[in-house]
Amino acid sequence: MSADQQPVSSAFLADPQFSFPQTRRWKTWELGRERLFERLLGEFRDRPVRFLEIGSFEGASAVWMLRNILTHPDARLTCVDNDKLGCGKRLESNLAASGLSAKATIHWIDSHDVRKHVPDDHFDFVYVDGSHAAANVLFDVVNAHLICRPGGIVGCDDYLFELPEDGSVPKPAIDAFLKLQGDRVEVIHSGYQLWFRKRAGVSAGGGGSGPS
User: Fold this and answer.
1) Contact indicator for 77, 65 with CB cutoff of 8 Å
2) Where are the domains of the chain?
3) Each residue's pLDDT tens digit, 72-106
4) How much is the pLDDT for 209?
5) Cα 53 to Cα 154: distance, rounded to the nearest angstrom
6) Reduced to 3 states, what is the DSSP secondary structure of residue 7?
7) In whole angstroms, what separates CA 130 from the centre of its chain?
8) Residue 98 C-beta-side C-alpha neighbours within 13 Å
9) Which of 187, 100, 86 is nearest to 145 (CA)?
10) pLDDT, tens digit, 9 for 90 and up, residues 143-156
11) Packing angle between helix 31-41 and helix 60-68, nearest 10 degrees?
12) pLDDT value, residue 206
């Protein structure tokens, strides 16, 4: 059975130990997204990997990754959120309710400041799910690429989001980044979300040895 055919479910959203009212209202975590994560992140399961997400909201994706992918004792998750949506307490309580909060670190910062707090070329997976304004999305994707290790993956949520924020949407920003990077990145999924792999040999410190 392939990863995208495995029987997965979002039943944990309704588990009374958790609180995900806005996640359910806006459908920001649902079966299709869960299957995408299962398929594209399965290579990292049971490995001592490091994940970071920009924009953790109420913690649905964080809890799912901790439960299903970050299963190695030394695997770690870093959450970056400025709590402008007022979900910080629910994020903390949901992580605590998962029983896995010891494997997660939260930085309550604007995503523009992420590189002040984490190293470059460090994370195996970076999930970009913060602001939807094009200028902010471009900044987040550039930073995600820099802090992702060569060979790692960056996932961009809401690539096809159509409700303007500050008069703009994410797709043109992500497209511009991909055009600038050329074959230094490899798009591995393009749909409502867009995911790419940072090619080996490309580091934050420079051009590296070129595409592999």
Assistant:
1) yes
2) 40-198
3) 999 999 999 999 999 999 999 999 999 999 999 99
4) 39
5) 10
6) coil
7) 9
8) 27
9) 187
10) 999 999 999 999 99
11) 40
12) 58
- The span from the CA of 79 to the CA of 77, in Å, is 7
Residue 179 and residue 93: Cα distance in Å, rounded?
Answer: 40
CB contact set of 122 (below 8 Å; sequence gap of 6+): 50, 147, 148, 149
CATH architecture classification, 40-198: 3-Layer(aba) Sandwich (3.40)
Contacts of 59 (CB under 8 A, 6+ apart): 20, 79, 90, 91, 94, 95
Burial of 179-210, coded b for 16+ CB within 10 Å and e otherwise, reads eebeebbeeebeeebbbbbbbeebebeeebee
Question: Is pLDDT of 58 > 60?
Answer: yes
Which of 20, 40, 41 lies closest to 30 in space, CA to CA? 20
| Nearest-10 crossing angle of helices 170-181, 134-147 | 40
- 56 token code pair: 């953790």
